[in-house]
UniProtKB/TrEMBL annotation:
Taxonomy of the source species: Bacteria, Pseudomonadati, Verrucomicrobiota, Verrucomicrobiia, Verrucomicrobiales
Entry GO MF terms: ATP binding; metal ion binding; ribokinase activity
Pathway terms, separated by semicolons: Carbohydrate metabolism; D-ribose degradation; D-ribose 5-phosphate from beta-D-ribopyranose: step 2/2
SUPFAM superfamilies from the UniProt entry: Ribokinase-like
Assembly notes: Homodimer.
Activity control: Activated by a monovalent cation that binds near, but not in, the active site. The most likely occupant of the site in vivo is potassium. Ion binding induces a conformational change that may alter substrate affinity.
Name this polypeptide is given: Ribokinase
InterPro entries: Carboh/pur_kinase_PfkB_CS, PfkB_dom, Ribo/fructo_kinase, Ribokinase, Ribokinase-like
Root EC class: transferase
PROSITE patterns xref list: PFKB_KINASES_2
Organism: Brevifollis gellanilyticus
Binding residues annotated for ATP, in chain numbering: N188, G256, D257, N281
């Protein structure tokens, strides 16, 4: 079980039921590929991130929509079993969101999302959560929900001086960068290229350029995940490269969400950002060892054990012989 933590997080986001097909290779345009099997699992960026934060010890309230169908009922029961606070999770008429995910033997994936109930999340429903957001240790949000409620949640947090962690995925062209404050922006390298229109490998050499572009967008700290390559942490003082764990992935679906949830759980505790990234990198790597977005989400103790082993090896290698 996860250790109890003082971290109090509000996650605003999507909940999907994932239909995962395992294929010998990802289809190209016009291709028909025969799947070895089809699996049904819980997912959606909001649900994934909430579960990841809970398993790292945070107290998590999830704000979002489920449909009034059997999938919505089952998902709510699943979250309750995982100790996610569902009191702000609405049930609306219609179907729960869904995602159709195709995964190849190397763990690479393609995804088609049907918003369902997620598309009915509104600004007024978010504003009703103002008292809960205003007392949170952090707000974690992503962009797999309509833009209006996402912005309303961020504005409430800004007004209450609650730190905002934004996983800007998928990239939304209409997002009004510079109109709201983002404490920590988490994106992968492809999203970072879209958003900042620059070469990611040149980050260290062009720190002043990064600072200027971040200031224009009111981003205090930028984190760029790069799969098996070290994660970049960019702030006012410079650029850090935080190593990732080397694993052979079974399924990379949801790894970015596990990173965001784990990072925010430790960030809300007041942990140093680079240390938060170490925890998040390890949690994300461990999550890829099982199929499904949530089945492999590790507990705090699992991550702590791996980090302890890594640090012990590093200390032994550094000690004089």
């Amino acid at each position: 079980m996860a250790r109890a933590s003082a971290a109090n997080i509000v996650v605003v986001g999507s909940l999907n039921v994932d239909f995962i097909s395992l294929v010998p290779h990802l289809p190209g345009a016009g291709d028909a590929v025969v799947a070895a099997q089809l699996e049904k699992r819980f997912g959606g960026k909001g649900g994934n991130q909430a579960l990841s934060a809970v398993r790292q010890g945070a107290q998590v309230m999830l704000v979002g929509n489920l449909g009034d169908d059997p999938d919505g009922r089952d998902y709510r029961n699943h979250l309750r079993r995982e100790a996610v606070n569902c009191s702000s999770l609405n049930t609306v008429r219609g179907t729960t969101g869904s995602a159709y995910v195709t995964v190849d033997p190397k763990g690479r994936n393609q995804t088609v999302i049907i918003p369902g109930a997620n598309g009915q999340l509104t600004g007024p429903s978010i504003k009703m959560q103002r008292p809960r957001i205003a007392v949170a240790g952090a707000l974690l949000i992503q962009l797999e929900i309509p833009l209006e409620p996402a912005l309303d949640a961020i504005r409430i947090a800004n007004e209450a001086k609650v730190p905002v962690v934004l996983n800007a995925s998928p990239i939304t062209p209409d997002f009004p960068w510079g109109e709201v404050k983002i404490d920590v922006l988490i994106v992968n390298q492809h999203e970072a290229r879209q958003l900042f229109e620059t070469t990611i490998s040149s980050s260290s050499a062009n720190h002043e350029v990064w600072k200027e572009r971040m200031a224009e967008r009111k981003i205090r700290h930028l984190i760029i995940t790069r799969g098996p390559t070290a994660t970049l942490s960019i702030g006012k003082s410079g650029v850090d490269e935080v190593p990732v764990q080397s694993v052979t992935p079974v399924d990379t679906v949801g790894a970015g969400d596990v990173f965001a949830g784990a990072f925010t759980a430790h960030y809300a505790e007041g942990t140093d950002i680079v240390e938060c990234i170490r925890w998040a990198n390890t949690a994300a790597a461990l999550s890829t060892l099982k199929a499904g977005a949530q089945e492999g989400v590790p507990y705090r103790g699992d991550v702590q054990s791996v980090l302890g082993t890594v640090r012990s090896r590093a200390a032994a290698a550094a000690s004089p012989r």
